[in-house]
Design a protein that fits this description.
The complex is a heterodimer of chains A (396) and B (510). Chain A is an all-alpha fold and 396 residues long. Chain A contains 17 helices and four strands. The chains are: A mainly alpha (396), B alpha/beta (510).
Chain lengths: 396, 510
């Protein structure tokens, strides 16, 4: 009996439950928007939203491809969140990491492909880490709030990268974006693109864009989970996050913690950017004054998973799934804007996960605690003796 | 005597706990009625219901025989019920007069018209013997005077029923005497007072009757004159309590802590929070820093433990200069610290019990290997300490710390700090907010530390604790040690004079 209730009342069980409920509410709200914008197609549309990502292997492959960068930025936000920092700068770290990877891949194209790929990934991590370190330093040494520093670093990153793309000669002015990378430098697809493919009318299979990036992302999530939950370093970082004054009291160097945490978070986002550039799907950085959306998508990914690195894998999949489904929704004459709104609404409601967690705790734990207290009171018979005592006191 | 307030069958449940379970009590005109109970017994909830902050789940409140519903503090004020909260609700940068009339300003054509209000406040303060300066700013006056302002606020609103929530916690012995006189004066003018406290001596001094609550239940109402302190405490706790800490004569040996010319500048204002302080603590003795809250105790402790390093002076721990080293080094050198605020500094509430027990030692080879935590060791150690220190926990080492009671949380800290076998234990208000049972336990542990050869530096605001535990008392006033006295040779009244800065005595043996 105890074990059955264990999962639901355990912390991780409750977290998972609240995330699932938030998603369901979000889907329901999305359905209402569908109904309002195009009643005739609403049910078909909703069906596509629910099943689109799984409708064939190609679509599933695209889901995995879209999931890769947002898992990384989600992990970046979630990791910093575990240590009590709000890394809203994943966008800048992502862009800078992506740029560094592209730069290395183009400038070192004379080297063997796999080596170039490895160096480009490393460059992405280092560049992102650098972009995360700046807000970390400002926070630790000057007590500048990391949100402000991160937002500024987002803009500095975007404009600086736009400038550097042109000045470092990686600019393709016919497409107004970075040049295409040589196929050799790309991350190996390990045959995943052909595995996740769909037959076309011509008979040739149409491969999806998925590659080994998704495996790396999952591996890094597991790695971060182990660091946070199993190591001394993770214990220290979480201590700073949960109660930095108690961490200070216990002799933990919280300033070092803040700097390391932001640096690692930046490195994770930078790796996400590098993997997107090296995925072989032709994505580069457009020279436009728009902040990278993947960075901000990391925030709902992390929120939905309540910052749990393993949960982030799933929430990243979910949002990528919705993105791909929304793409398919265009077949039904839904305006692209409506699709964007529906995805946003679902994410918006998904952020309720935190709120729902409180409510679920209230229902499950509150009732349980009640029962426990009663059982304890009855068990020890404390109240009986108490009453006797009071009578003694009265007469005395 | 007629009954003014009658609470009948009040029940109030919060998620997971029944704070008040079928509680009935009555208040007569002109009496001081004490409400006694441990922390969490439901005293504050009951009074919050009377003051309209909470609605009872069932039960009724009668005023002068008529059922009333109190839906908020405004209703309570209308019914003549006023409350002095434990933490005063005063506007710091308003004057005394402005605070008293706040919310009931006398106006003329929309403009403030203070003369009328001033006349009434002065009249009230004379009538009840509440000395105040109407034009002083709250931030400039003593805590005792702030409390008188709170009382005048109630009188200005013509409240008949006055609730005092632990009013003596922040006062010096002299101020407590004054307050007791004021309370008696108020009742002789026909006011009725509800006096929430867990200090038995005060009940014996002023209260007419006393209602005891325990774990949300009514234990009984007794005439204070016919009950003694032991009986009251037994009603409150449910068992006999030993008030006097049994301890042998201190045998101080070598110096474990030597503080020389220590100064700490205040964060908020330019003045020194700790001003040129020097003292020594030997192993095998309990040295107590006594003083009124806010006289530099926190800053002194922060400087000693390294939370905020000192600006000037030196600190020697067992002969080693530690004045500039990190918190971790101090801890490794044998300093343990039971912090003043267990939630702010002492515990990480989101961690489970075992994680909190290794907060100071998680980095030692016993609990980590190559950077990986050794979970088996950590949870075994937790079980060991839970057993040894009798920490009550639902799920052993995996109990969420947040769900534990205050007393057990404090035991976690005490267990963690004592089990490290420190040379010096700095204990800051180790029993704050705890009930008598837990206080008794923690006092025993501190004495045990002394007897096993550690030096104990106790910082406390509770004079009973100071007198009971210490072998030597240092009184701190405005950041300076103004007296070094032997608890056997000093009276509470003398101590109070030192604490309020009215008297200075410096022994050469510091």
């Amino acid at each position: 009996m105890k074990k059955e209730r264990h999962f639901l009342s355990s912390l991780s069980g409750m977290n998972a439950l609240s995330s699932v409920m938030a998603i369901l509410i979000g889907l329901f709200a999305g359905f209402i928007i569908l109904l309002a914008s195009n009643p005739a197609q609403a049910f078909n549309g909703f069906f596509i939203v629910l099943t689109g990502g799984f409708s064939d292997l190609f679509n599933l492959g695209q889901v995995l491809y879209y999931a890769t960068p947002i898992i990384m930025t989600g992990l970046s936000v979630g990791f910093a969140g575990k240590t009590g920092l709000f890394n809203i700068g994943a966008s800048g770290q992502f862009t800078f990491g992506m740029y560094a990877a592209i730069l290395v891949a183009i400038k070192m194209s004379g080297l063997p492909g796999p080596l170039v790929c490895l160096l480009a990934l490393l460059a992405g991590i280092i560049a992102g880490a650098l972009w995360g370190l700046v807000p970390g330093l400002l926070k630790a040494l000057c007590n500048v709030h990391e949100v402000i520093a991160c937002i500024m670093m987002n803009y500095i990153g975007m404009y600086l990268v736009n400038y550097l793309i042109v000045t470092t000669d990686v600019y393709d002015n016919t497409r107004n974006m970075t040049m295409r990378l040589s196929q050799d430098a790309n991350l190996p697809t390990l045959g995943l693109d052909n595995l996740f493919s769909a037959a076309t009318a011509g008979g040739a299979a149409r491969p999806s864009s998925v590659g080994s990036g998704i495996l790396i992302a999952i591996f890094v999530c597991v790695l971060i989970y182990i660091v946070l939950e199993k190591t001394k370093f993770g214990y220290e970082l979480k201590s700073c996050g949960y109660n930095h004054e108690a961490a200070h009291y216990a002799g933990i160097n919280e300033k070092k913690g803040i700097m390391l945490s932001m640096t690692i978070a930046g490195g994770l986002a930078g790796l996400g950017g590098a993997m997107l550039a090296l995925a072989g799907a032709g994505r580069g950085i457009k020279v436009v004054d728009v902040l990278a959306g993947e960075g901000f998508m990391g925030i709902p990914v992390a929120l939905l998973a309540l910052n749990n690195p393993i949960g982030i894998i799933f929430s990243g999949f979910l949002i990528a799934y919705l993105t791909q489904s929304g793409f398919l929704l265009q077949r039904l004459a839904f305006a692209p804007e409506i699709i964007e709104i529906i995805i946003a609404i679902i994410i918006y409601f998904s952020a309720l996960a935190l709120l729902l967690k409180g409510a679920i705790e209230y229902f499950i734990k509150g009732k349980k605690k009640d029962a426990r207290i009663k059982a304890e009171d009855l068990g020890t018979g404390d109240f009986k003796t108490g009453n006797n005592d009071s009578e003694g006191g009265d007469s005395g | 005597m007629e009954t003014v307030i009658e609470m009948k069958g009040i029940t109030k449940a919060f998620p997971g706990i029944i704070a008040n379970d079928d509680i009935s009590m009555d208040l007569r005109r002109g009496e001081i009625h004490a409400l006694l109970g441990e922390n969490g017994a439901g005293k504050s909830t009951l009074m919050s219901i009377l003051f309209g902050l909470y609605q009872p789940d069932s039960g009724v409140i009668n005023k002068n025989g008529e059922i009333v519903s109190i839906n908020g503090p405004n209703d309570a004020t209308r019914l003549g019920i006023g409350m002095v909260h434990q933490h005063f609700k005063l506007v710091q940068n308003f004057t005394v007069l402005e605070n008293i009339v706040l919310g009931m300003e006398t106006t003329k054509r929309g403009f403030l018209h203070m003369e009328e209000a001033r006349a009434r406040v002065v009249e009230l303060s004379e009538q009840y013997g509440l000395a105040i300066d109407p034009d002083a700013y709250i931030s400039d006056i003593t805590v005792g005077m702030q409390q008188r302002v709170e009382i005048l606020k109630m009188l200005y609103r013509e409240n008949e029923i006055l609730i005092f929530d632990e009013p003596t916690a922040v006062l010096t012995p002299q101020e407590i005497d004054d307050l007791m006189d004021i309370m008696k004066g108020l009742t002789s003018e026909g006011k009725s007072i509800l006096f929430i406290t867990h200090k038995l001596a005060e009940i014996k001094r002023v209260a007419d009757r006393c209602t005891v609550l325990r774990k949300g239940c009514l234990i009984g109402t007794v005439d204070v004159a016919s009950a003694n302190v032991e009986q009251l405490s037994e009603m409150m706790v449910g068992r006999k309590i030993n008030f006097i800490v049994e301890k042998s004569e201190a045998e101080p040996k070598e110096v474990v802590l030597e503080v020389k010319d220590l100064s700490v500048h205040s964060k908020t204002h330019g003045k020194a929070a700790v001003n040129n302080v020097s003292f020594k603590v030997r192993s095998g003795e309990v040295v107590c820093i006594a003083g009124i809250d806010g006289n530099g105790q926190s800053e002194l402790v922060y400087a000693l433990t390294g939370i905020r390093p000192p600006d000037e002076g030196t600190i020697l721990l067992a002969g080693k200069d530690i004045s500039r080293v990190s918190v971790r080094t101090r801890s490794n050198e044998g300093m343990a610290h039971i912090p003043e605020d267990r939630h702010r500094h002492g515990l990480i509430l989101d961690y489970d019990l075992a994680y909190n027990l290794v907060l100071q030692t998680y980095h030692t080879p016993r609990f980590q290997k190559n950077g990986f935590l050794r979970f088996n060791e950590i949870y075994e150690y937790a079980d060991e300490l839970i057993e040894k220190f009798d920490i009550r926990s639902g799920q052993g080492g995996r109990t969420p710390t947040r769900s534990m009671s205050g007393g057990n949380q404090q035991k976690v800290i005490v267990a963690r700090e004592i089990d490290r076998k420190p040379k010096l234990l700095v204990a800051v208000q180790p029993t704050r907010g705890l009930d008598v049972g837990a206080i008794e336990y923690i006092h025993k542990q501190l004495i045990h530390e002394r007897e096993t050869g550690a030096g104990v530096l106790l910082v406390s605001l509770e004079l009973d604790e100071v007198m009971n535990l210490s072998d030597r008392i240092l009184v701190i006033y405005e950041g300076q040690i103004v007296a070094d006295v032997d608890p056997r040779e000093v009276t509470l009244q003398e101590l109070g004079l030192y604490m309020s800065g009215s008297s200075v005595k410096n022994n050469s043996k510091v």
